[in-house]
Give the backbone structure.
Amino acid sequence: MTLLPKQLLQNASGFPDFGPGEAIALRRMLDIIRTQYEYAGFVPIDTALVERVQVLAAKSEGEIGNQIYGLRLLSPAPDALTDVKDLALRFDHTIPLARFIAANQNALTFPFRRYAIGPVFRGEKPKDGRYRQFIQADIDVVGDGSLDLLYDAEMVAVIAGIFTELAIGPFTTRIGNRKVLQGFLLSVNIPEDKMTSALGIIDKVEKIGKEKVVKMLVEIGVDESAGRSLITLLTDARNTDETMALLKMNSLNSLFAEGVQELESVVKGIRQFGVKESNFCVDLSIARGLDYYTGTVYETRLDTYPELGSIASGGRYEDLASSLTNRKLPGVGISIGVTRLLLRLIKAGLMDASVTTITPVIVTTATGLEKNASIYLEQVMRLRNDGIPAEVYLMARPLGKQMQFADRKGFTLAVITQEENIADGTVVIRNLKTGIQQEVLSERLESTVREMLL
Amino acid sequence: MTLLPKQLLQNASGFPDFGPGEAIALRRMLDIIRTQYEYAGFVPIDTALVERVQVLAAKSEGEIGNQIYGLRLLSPAPDALTDVKDLALRFDHTIPLARFIAANQNALTFPFRRYAIGPVFRGEKPKDGRYRQFIQADIDVVGDGSLDLLYDAEMVAVIAGIFTELAIGPFTTRIGNRKVLQGFLLSVNIPEDKMTSALGIIDKVEKIGKEKVVKMLVEIGVDESAGRSLITLLTDARNTDETMALLKMNSLNSLFAEGVQELESVVKGIRQFGVKESNFCVDLSIARGLDYYTGTVYETRLDTYPELGSIASGGRYEDLASSLTNRKLPGVGISIGVTRLLLRLIKAGLMDASVTTITPVIVTTATGLEKNASIYLEQVMRLRNDGIPAEVYLMARPLGKQMQFADRKGFTLAVITQEENIADGTVVIRNLKTGIQQEVLSERLESTVREMLL
């Protein structure tokens, strides 16, 4: 039989394979995210990975619309499904949420808190840190008609819970408000139709620097001195209270004033939720340029690894599903780009992907299974039934080979029972990291293993 | 703005939406499956949902080959990726496993135990119990060159652990062996090229009945009396030991004898793993018709809900990746069709999908958030920090409305703090199922909630 060329065995670029080490690290991360989401009252919904093209098109704009993967059947069967041409892979969790709520609005209880953790797909050119399939972990709260600002504050508390648990170093959620930015831009007479471009430019200030941003703002019609004072407002180092005081001193117009008031409520709420001062700040340069946010916007970064960029981001939106239902559904949400974050943390040495076993214990089968299988299988089942995950080695191989296997997979303890142990009714438990071992009566197997795992 | 027609808001057929109730039930099921897989030493790998068409084609046969969804870009961007035409959605977890092992064989430790839980896609006509996207939860152990039969036995122990934990009623894993069946078919001179058809026919005996099976076997060239004695062998009621005794009395040919010996080893191993006699039996009619199994085959059913059909199935295969690598990789695996199982259990009333909250506690905000947010937010954060998942109601609504919300979502306890409680330094905790409530000093919030949740 001819073999497939080797290069075809590698995953397609942008569709990464997670081997056991990465997959175990991924689960650790997802378990923490999910637990924190559930602790805060969010419930899952699982829509399919496939949506109708019409739904995606009704809600998607610009760049993303060009990145949608449609489906086709490779070899149409006689009863081929005629709808396949209208199906495509989702590229975020927001549109499926909008469709689900529009379809089930009468069965849901508002404010509706939901989390969604799973893969999304983008038809982009893959490069470092950009994937074609990646996991997003989103939460949103969606109100019926209105949604109070304390929900915006709670998002920051939930994110703080997650990054505290992940223990990957100090982090800060920067909080901005688009009304403040837009109010300022209106006050310097920037035309409506340039607003989105201006927000996109401001969003880049950290990447391209102040001078370049001013230059680009001037190019779209902002007066140079106004541009400069905007950039000073946005980027000068101040603590949260200083920024708020400065904002309150300048009442430029009603939109600006509304944004400042929102920001103040959100900051107050974040403090009432008990979020540490070191875990958040007001940063007016956060604009989330191309997104559909209308008020609060967020970005979370690791203080000591700013090069990882934004590790969580989101904001408040006026109306989730305007093209799908007449009901007004304002909401606030935040999203963690899990695949990118995990792979960067592993690369930076902040997460370990070297452990390739979940069970800490291997039960070896030193005297062979022909004769003594019942002894070894009883041992492994006793451990499992006692709540201790345990693997058993079931190949007929000498103990030396079995210990090599145990070392390679990274078990903590090996249970070893040789002829003399069988005669004595004992068992040896060896710590593979330290080499220390204990010989105990076999009825003490579970308790000794438990003790040696502490 | 014109709205999208309502029918487009429904999920496409065969791609079911799981609302909060179903999604919570799904997580309960997946958590049990995953825990049992991990307890037994299986580690996850996460390959992408997208594979190369060439890889899928090299390994897929017959019907399934006609059911593959390929990808296309809806609107090719100028830098469109030229490989998209060669990409398709996976239709099982086995081919991605084969590719992953072939690509990473030198980095892996054999026998390699892996689990994979996630969606797969089939371009079939959806109907009751058949979906176009569904979750499969697979385990496989793959050996390098050889793999001992006790691994076949361990699968049955793992499956027994899962269905015991799921607590959806008594279940039996039926164990067959294709060598036994093929040996019998060879002994009645069935030609090689009819073997697969014959196995497919035998696999249907439960569905279509003995008479019809005999008739179909005669049509493909089996002698009628041989067909009848085969069907008697396969379907007569006997316990495991009787079946084994009967098989050992009849040594039809070497293939048959080999299969009988395998079956004997597997049954012995299952008993040594401590699986209850009521949770397994030998059933020679299990053939897994169209699959690539070569020895042991399994199917698990619920004793009291046979109409649910097979809820887990799998078997032993000679060589996982013959078209991808020269290394011989025998393995054994089992797969649970989670989506179908879950939705049928919900429909049959064996699983509850009516609870739409995960957190048991709602903190209400009776006196409003304008004045007293800090009291309520401190309460909810104290509960969460104490390990009690809790939601807080953050809309400015009267307590009556808040209690309606709490009832509708199905919380167990409501924390209520009114003006008089604030004055007294107390808090009321009400059990929403029984109506019983306690008023306690507010420092006793966590301990009382914990107690009332028991």
In short: Chain B touches chain A through 118 residues (CB under 8 Å). The mean pLDDT of chain B is 92.
